[in-house]
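Response to reviewer comment R2.3. The reviewers asked that we include at least one raw input/output pair. We reproduce the pair for polyribonucleotide nucleotidyltransferase here without editing.
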Amino acid sequence: ADADADADADAEPAPLVLDPVPPASHSVETSPTGPSGGDVSTLTVHLGAPGHPDPIVIQTGKIGRQAAGSVTLTRGDTVLYATASRDDDPRDGLDFLPLSVDHQERFSSAGLTSGSYNKRDGRPAEHEVLVCRLIDRPIRPLIADGWRHETQLLSWVLSYDGERSCDPLAIVASSAALWLSDVPLAKPVAAAQVGLIGDTLILNPTNKQMERSRLNLIVAGTKDAVLMIEGAADFLTEKQMVEAISFGHQAIKTLCDGIEELGKVAGKAKNYETIVSPPEGLQEAVDAYALEKVDAMFSHAPNRSKQIASEEMSSLQRETIEAMEEQYPEQASAIKGAFKDLLCRRMFVLAKESGLRCDGRRTDEIRIIESEAGILPRTHGSALFTRGDTQAIATATLGDSGMRQKIDRIDGQDSKRFYLQYTFPPSCVGETGRVGAPGRREIGHGNLAERALVPALPSEDDFPYTIRVESLITESHGSSSMASVCGGCLALMDAGVPIKRPVAGIAMGMLLGDKGSVSDENAVILSDILGTEDALGTMDFKVAGDKDGITTFQLDIKCEGLTVETMEQALEQAREGRLHILGKMEEALAEPREELPPTIPRIGQFSIPEDAIGKVIGPGGKQIRAIIEDFELSNMDVDEDGTVQVTAFNTTKLRMAEEFVTELVAGGGGGGGGKKSARAQYIGPE
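Raw output as returned:
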């Protein structure tokens, strides 16, 4: 039986077979089957992608009728429920969109119960936080400017069949609920997941298919353009990435057409009445007063620090507000908006006409990079990565299997051998504020940097350590998550982790003449964006990888979409910037250290028969504790499959422990037939 199992493990994976499906289509039906005979409208969408036989069914009118918009979404035996709600009156004094998003994967959806003390699903898990961000990012840019009603999107996984990820469905369900409400959303939004096995792109792959996939991409957008991409890849080329995004967008078009038709049947009229437009002539007045001053501020930008540039911009904003107050009293928020619009447009004009940016760099120029490795004497690995005014201290810690990060999900309990934790204290931007548990932004940035480094790690067979990377942001002025990728890679190499190849990350930006449109041929692509360019621009596109391929990517935009042509340009410019950063990192540390530092415990790993596990552990764990004590081990773990992992700083003791366990399993060393003097005696509390 063991031989058969080994043969199965070594066998070639079965060829990919995708079942035929009906062509892409959608239909809407309405029937009086709701409570009290109310209308229930049902949208059925066939995506037309081989291997995706189950239609996506969105229904409204039966459940959650008191919300502004509510839907259930069904695919196979998976069911999600999503609602969109808003307050009756707008909030005064706000200059931002008050949108909140929450998503919950209920353990009961998979027939499980939370492992917490009171058996109740509690605070959002890390994965649920990441899904909230996936929902928020493509929807937020499409809600009308000036909407100030408190708006909340809620979604729950009510039933989960374990076949496919629910993440893209959560985006679709929340978008559909919002589209049916009176919240002024410009267009329907939809999402899809894309995998890649061999040369075949797969739409919404199964969980088993994802185990073989070199790509995990979630793409969201409207029927006209892409709004968001998120995912990880195993060193795929830019061309492969663009093909995958285009493939996913075809399904998005089908879904958006269906949701749009459902809105015509069951949706509410959009509420634009409470949106207060800026006073007539305000933008022209602000332009007339501040345009030349803004151009002058940008023209002497080279070599200015973030602090000086921020002070100049804030001072000019205050001056503009004071100058406009008499003509436009009690309109400070509107004046700020008009001033920001002016900054955006002049930044675009400067870059388009002169090829220079607000800090004097060329559009494809990277800020000065300085890197150091091995800066902390007692950590396993450490690095300081500085790019302009963005800086990160990264550390790497190696341990045994007991250091794995354990996660409870509706798929079951999982454990991570590698994890990256990102910290963004308020001091890194010169402010004070809350510290403690990580916020949603920190969780998202840490996950992005983690995905960037995973493909470069050695296999567990070659390097059996559990690896933890921490990134502490000490200065921030644009793309601290990509600084975490670069610093984390150097810290891993400093710790002696034999990574396959170095990885670097870069953040790309885009300037548009009209932020309310889709990207066009006039778009200006920026490499290594500043925080200012992120705030005033229309795109934040983070890409990480090595010189040959991409390992992770994240796109957020503030316009109505990104064309494939613009994305191709951004990816190529990102590749050139990535090569430059890798060269600078190589100057600090060209390859992993040949030896592990002495502060890292050594790990031995071997296997024993499964029926001998009880013998090694002993009654109540006495035997394994005795082995740890007698051979001065740091730890010893025995897995259910008979894999034994022993950890110690003394390699001689490590080898002696392995020999003892082998002899014990064979029948000696306390097993009843060996040398009695070799038995390890338990020493410890009763």
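The longest helix spans residues 238-266. The CA atoms of residues 248 and 316 lie 44 Å apart. Further pairs are available on request from the corresponding author.
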